Write a sequence for this structure.
């Protein structure tokens, strides 16, 4: 049985909004992995979409605290394990717009 963390139908509007922005950036690709939709710059993770949220990779503690304070969220859980990664909730493309500066910052750091 495959566990799926990303519901394409439910997240279609947000995925379309994210794709229309980040897939224009140099060297960015997306692909499904481990039940999520992952975004990479070359071979480095930028972020991944999960149902009702986005997980940004390797944010500084300051940026992570800012995201948590502004948007709330919860730790990302996979196969019963809770990791350091944080799920920032996304209910609409408007929520995504507010998170995009952090996505761009992660993109810029992923060199």
């Amino acid at each position: 049985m495959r566990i799926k963390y990303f519901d394409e139908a439910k997240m279609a509007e947000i995925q379309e909004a994210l794709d229309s922005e980040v897939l224009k950036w140099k060297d960015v690709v997306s692909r499904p992995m481990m039940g999520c939709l992952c975004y990479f710059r070359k071979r480095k993770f930028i972020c991944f979409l999960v149902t009702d949220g986005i997980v940004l990779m390797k944010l500084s503690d300051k940026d992570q605290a800012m995201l948590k304070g502004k948007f709330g969220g919860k730790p990302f859980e996979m196969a019963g394990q809770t990791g350091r990664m944080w799920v920032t909730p996304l209910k609409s493309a408007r929520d995504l717009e507010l998170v995009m500066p952090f996505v761009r910052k992660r993109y810029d750091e992923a060199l």
Remarks:
- The first strand starts at residue 28 and ends at 33.
